[in-house]
Amino acid sequence: MEKVQFTNSGGGLLSRPDKLRAHRVGGYADVEMVFDGATVSVLGKHRKVYAQFEGPATVDELIEALRAGHGIALPGADLLRTNVYETLAAGIIEAKHIGRGVIDGRECEHLAFRNLDTDWQLWVEVGDAPIPRKLVITTKTLSSAPQYTLQITDWRTGVEPASDAFAFEVPEGAEQIGPDDLLELDELPPSAAAGDLQ
Questions:
Q1: Distance between CA atoms of 83 and 56, rounded to whole angstroms?
Q2: What range defines the domain where residue 125 resides?
């Protein structure tokens, strides 16, 4: 029943409806994904491999395709959806206003929700810019109830991306892998995935 937490940092750039660039780096993975409206490119910088496949029409559909077709969980990606409220509210069986909390020095409303398979909490900044500052998702369907925490330090809207912001260039020496091998770009070390931490 021991919980071990792995930490990553990252960022993203979204241009609705069909462009996304996201990056995360941690102790065991350094992964970038670029969706230019036609092609999805995923680069595992730590392994010098990349995969490419034809993308769907929108970022919303891409999130679903990665979850369903490639088995990638993408917790927290629902905050990027066009209809965030409808997506997050689907299946809620209980909702609570816990009170106020402080995330990175910003006062936030602390909300808690329950679905059949997950419990999740959301901290939203108080004031004229109700930005989500923290999301915690607890899975109830797996033993040891694994958790995912997303903390947002910077959230800007109305910024016009550079013309080449969603261009992908294959790095020299990178080997192409199939889209079905994307799970190999995991953020866990192989020993942790097998349950043997050293």
A1: 17
A2: 8-193
